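Record CUB domain-containing protein, 142 aa.
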Amino acid sequence: NTADGDGCSRECAIELGWSCGADNVTCTCACCGRISSQRGNVSVPASSSGYVDNLRCEWTIGAGGDGITLRFANFSTESNYDQAAILSCANESCFNATVVKSLSGDVSASGIINITSGIARVKFKADGCISGRGFLLFLAPM
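=>
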């Protein structure tokens, strides 16, 4: 995705985590995508040095119908500046989505987050300064 959100182009700066193909049209992302399964996990790249500054990640999870249960583990971001948000969506476009939970800082236990619509969007946004270790998010059917 580009900084302006319009896909790959020669005129726009590419956000960290994304890369453009030679055609300047095809984009890929290291920490985003569509997960149709309701079981598994996603993570913000974590290492001993943490995630990179200005990182943007986004996943759409589920296929609708059955609900999804989400639970964060090992959550560590720069408090008040780097944030993860869970949105409940009526459909895959997530237009007019509802923010269910936002997390920032060191969180030992996020609790269970139930998405009854069966479709969730997870967004992570880091600023350009201090970074944390990241997080792991577990997915399961309700």
